[in-house]
Amino acid sequence: MMQNKASSTSRKVFVFFNDLFFILLALLCVYPLWYVLVQSLSSGNTGNAVLFPENFTFNNYIQVFQMKNVAHAMGISGLRTLLGTICTVSACMLLGYLFSREDMPCRKFLYRMMIVTMYVSGGLIPTYLVIKAYGLLNNFWVYILPAVVNAYYVILIKTFVEQLPKAVEESAMIDGANTLTIFARIILPVSLPIVATISVYAAVGQWNSWFDNHIYALSNKNIMTLQYMLYKYLNEAERITKEIKEMGNMGTSAETMLTPRGVRMTVTMVTVIPVLFVYPFLQRYFVKGIMLGAVKG
Fold first, then answer.
1. Cβ(87)–Cβ(148) under 8 Å?
2. Pick the residue with more confidence: 89 or 244?
3. Sign of the four-CA dihedral 136, 142, 145, 149
4. Distance CA 125, CA 228 (A)
5. How many Å apart are CA 268 and CA 259, to the nearest integer?
């Protein structure tokens, strides 16, 4: 009896410290984002705002969105995220399904060659020359086409499809369905978890991408993405602040003054907020898709 009581006490102590550890870990992950949000909602040079905004205002966001071409750049980022996600998910789903079929010609060789690309890259200069040879420099499609096929996504999809019952697919073949019909009417409807998982990966990757704009589309200002524009703003926050003051869009009082710190914090939140709104809707599919798609290697 005494042993059971001691065991129960030690169990409670373990659970308490275990919960405390994970609560602290969660706070360490969440607080940096909360701090940036607090700073972006504080007016003036208020570096003391730690837990709650000081002189709460949306003025920082208003001034940032009034900057030249910000709305256009946001549209470009939204368009590339939408088209890039659709193209990537469609291509990877089809390729993953084909790799799951044993009657695919050269299946093992092509699959292994695709896996090699995860470890060996051509490098920046050869990639630039390939992009140039295809005429994609300063072209909107340079954001979409190079990322259409991702080896990691294909592996997840292939593993997921291989766990589906083969009897349903065989029945459809007996009824005369071809490969595309089976893929569109049987495989896709039951693959919603892995589709949602790949969609989250692809969408976040497209939305956050800025380096391809910097390398392949630097000369075309009409296809500048929001992330690259905000990257420039982060590096030129003091100059941007001076330009806004000179435009006369705001007063010079401490309550309404936009500072370089405010610019940095606000543009950081602008890039993060869309992902925070989208991810919760796909989270339940995301976890299930990763678990099912990663059982086998």
1. yes
2. 89
3. positive
4. 21
5. 14
Q: What's the whole-model pTM score?
A: 0.76
Angle, helix 226-235 to helix 237-247, in steps of 10 degrees: 90
Question: In whole angstroms, how far apart are CA 75 and each of 48, 81, 144, 223, 274?
Answer: 35, 10, 15, 9, 13
Summarize pLDDT for 184-209 with one digit per residue, the tens. Answer: 888 888 888 888 888 888 988 898 88
Closest by CA to 197, choosing from 30, 276, 85, is 85
Largest CA distance in the chain: 79
Q: Which runs of consecutive H residues, i.e. helices, occur in the chain?
A: 2-40, 59-65, 70-100, 107-116, 124-133, 151-162, 166-174, 179-182, 188-190, 192-208, 211-216, 226-235, 237-247, 260-293
* Residue 295, CB-side half-sphere exposure with 13 Å CA sphere: 13
| Separation between Cα atoms, residue 153 and residue 293, nearest integer Å | 10
- Where residue 12 falls among pLDDT bands split at 50, 70, 90? confident
Candidates 278, 119, 85; CA nearest to 198 is 85
Do residues 281 and 192 make contact, with C-beta atoms less than 8 angstroms apart?
no
Which residues neighbour 114 within 8 Å (Cβ) at sequence distance 6 or greater? 149, 151, 154
Chain Cα centroid distance, residue 170: 37
Q: What's the confidence (pLDDT) of residue 297?
A: 43
Greater model confidence, 246 or 106: 106
